[in-house]
Every structure is written in C-alpha cells, then in structure tokens.
Specification:
47% of the residues lie in helices and 14% in strands. With 312 residues, it is α/β, with parallel strands linked by helices. The strands form 2 sheets. Strands 1, 2, 4, 5, 7, 8, 9 and 10 form an 8-stranded mixed sheet that branches. Strands 3-6 form a two-stranded parallel ribbon. The protein is globular and about 50 Å long.
C-alpha cells in the first residue's frame, strides 16, 4: 500500500535574545534526523528560521551568533545599549549612573522617532545572518509573519526579499523602526501571532512542532503605576494569544528561558544549550507525532497504561 509521509512544519516563536534557544532546538532536529518540510517564523524565530531554511546549519548559526555578539560593531550598537539599559543585578555607582542616563536617553529618543534602531542600522544585523536572496529560493520552504500597523492585519510573507521579510517580522515596536512597504507599515509579527502555528497549518502542514521562547506572565512583577498596568495587560493578552496558537501544535518545545529580558544577548551561548536540552526532552513526542503508526502506538500505549492485555 502506498504511504505518503506527513509534512512537518516548524513554528518558531518570537522572544528577542531568548530566540537564540531556537539554534539549540535545530541542532537536535538535525542530529536526530527529524524531517522539516516548512519553517514559519515570527520575529527572532523568522531570523533563525530564515537562516536555517537557507541551508545554514545549527553549528554555523551558533558560530555566527557568537562572532557577531563579540564584534565591535555589536558592542557599540544601540541594541547593545538596550541590553545595558534594561540589565538588572548588582552594579557599581558609576555603572548605575551610566545605565540611568542611557535609559532616559533611549526613552527621549523614542518620543521623536519611530524606533530607537533605524532600518539601516538593523539591516546590518540581518545581512550578517541571511544571504541576499528571495524567499522562493530557500532550500526549505519558509514564511515570515509580520503585522501591518495601518490595517492591523497579520501579514504572511512568502515571496520577495528574504532580508526585508525577516527585518519586518523582527521590528519590535518602539525598539526597531517599522518597515514601509507600499501602503503597509510592517512591524513585529508577535503583535498578532507570537508563535505561528496557525500560519503553518494554513500553509498545509500535517504535523506542527512549535517552539515557544517567551517569558510568559511574571508572578513577581509589582503593579503600582500606569506603566506597570499597561505592561501587565499586554502580557495577559499575549499569553492568551499564545495559548490559542499552541493549541494547534502537535508538539510544543518550551526552553526554560526564565525571566530573561528580550535584550539580554549576552546570554546567547547559555540559551542555545537550554534549547538543546528542551528539544531532547521532546524527542519521543516528536518521533511519535511524525510516525505513520502513531495512532496505533497511542492505542497500544493506552492499553498498556490501563493494564489490558487484549488488543482485539
């Protein structure tokens, strides 16, 4: 009897620096021979997923990430400045003063610009990781998810410049300038679709492996000001949207990223290891999901769990 392997899609979610855990997940999928027929990414998931779809291995992605984050270009960039401004922990008096001033400077900048980081500046980061090709030319079919700030609609980018599509998907509101495209003003995909499981399903995937690298709702946050309330409301809405998306996944991989802020790129190598560990823990689930005998295996598993010896 002819058997067609079910198509498998990888849905990589947004989360800024936490998305470096995606590299660890990809390494495990590579080593274990888990087939991937489609990659859909939101924000940093689009950056890592787009690079992988081009044929760049997980090991090469790790090397590029380490090299870039240690480069003088990154260390002097506004992105590195954001990490310093948001960083917690113990600091000396001089460092506290510099962080305070830098944080206030970034806030003032945001009052007069569409983003702290311009398209031109962020393009350098995108170009470092992605080749200058069209989306249609990737080795593995790829989709990037963005949001049109004009219409409020979710935009699935499936053709045209790969770099431009990923840049639009990664444009964190306030931090990175939205990308103008005709009548549309494209911003971060996480606004409407933090983990793009629904997009993967719309694109025809039979099996969806989702990777969630967001922080979720913090229980320790104090809610005292208008800003605190605004952030909490945003977290709650995001969590509800995430749960809705993940309900459509066959396997969910959730690296334990803790309470890391999206700007903490200095934790890159730790995050890659965390992603690896989370993926290894889900290997059985992934193999079961893609197995042509999964219904039979689940049936047998239930019978064994209930202690029955009859398989009639």
């Amino acid at each position: 009897m002819f058997w067609r392997r079910k198509s498998v899609a990888l849905a990589l979610g947004g989360g800024g620096a936490r998305g470096l855990a995606h590299i660890g997940v990809l390494r495990v999928l590579e080593r274990e021979g888990i087939p991937i027929d489609l990659i859909v990414g939101t924000s940093v998931g689009a950056l890592v997923g787009g690079a992988y779809a081009c044929g760049i291995t997980a090991d090469e992605l790790e090397r590029r990430a380490e090299e870039y984050l240690n480069s003088s270009e990154f260390r002097s960039s506004a992105m590195k400045g954001l990490e310093a401004a948001y960083r917690g922990g113990e600091e000396g008096l001089g460092e506290k003063i510099r962080t305070y001033v830098k944080n206030r400077f970034l806030v003032v900048q945001a009052m007069f610009k569409p983003g702290i980081l311009s398209n031109q500046d962020f393009q350098k980061t995108i170009s470092y990781f992605l080749p200058d090709i069209e989306i249609e030319e990737t080795r593995t079919p790829f989709r990037a998810v963005a949001t049109d700030l004009v219409s409020g609609q979710q935009i699935v980018l499936s053709r045209g410049s790969l770099r431009q599509a990923v840049m639009a998907s990664c444009a964190v509101p306030g931090a990175i300038e939205p990308l103008k495209e005709g009548e549309r003003l494209l911003s971060n995909g996480g606004i409407t679709c933090l983990i793009p499981c629904s997009v993967a399903r719309q694109e025809g995937a039979d099996i969806i492996i989702a990777v969630a690298v967001d922080r979720g709702i913090s229980r320790e946050t104090e809610i005292r000001t208008v800003v605190d309330i605004y952030h909490r409301v945003s977290e709650i809405m995001g969590e509800k949207l995430k749960a809705l998306e993940l309900s459509g996944a066959d396997v969910v991989i959730s690296p334990e990223v803790g309470d890391l802020h999206w700007t903490e790129f200095s934790q890159a190598m730790n995050l890659i290891e965390i992603g690896e560990r989370a993926a290894r823990e889900k290997l059985v689930d992934m193999r079961l999901a893609i197995s042509p005998f999964r219904k039979w295996l689940r049936f047998v598993g239930r019978r064994i769990a209930t202690g029955s010896r009859s398989y009639k």
